[in-house]
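Ticket #4471: structure output looks truncated?

Reporter: J.K.
Steps to reproduce: submitted the chain below (93 residues) through the standard prediction queue, then opened the result file.
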Amino acid sequence: MRLYVCWGTFATPRPGGHPCRNAYEALVQAGHRPELVKSYGFAPLPGVFNQTRGRRGKQALTGYRWVPTLALDDRSAIDRSRAIVEWAQATPS
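Returned output as attached by the reporter:
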């Protein structure tokens, strides 16, 4: 499984925490060890500014360039932090 994140899984003072970190921490707490794919860029900008390898791979997978996204081994994907957290809690390793 691969977890597409922006710049990393670091803590931030953002209320509710950083979405990429929240998704990563939920997966780790559930016993998963996802491969991290740093996507860089900034999704609200036009696509020409988001042509990093990670963003291209993520967009090819889902048609959508926002992260986090969890790419499962069965080639399905889960978009958005909250959905990834829910999946991790329901699917321990």
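Triage note (M.O.): checked the attachment and the full token line is present. Residues 69 and 79 are 4 Å apart (CA to CA).
Status: closed, working as intended.
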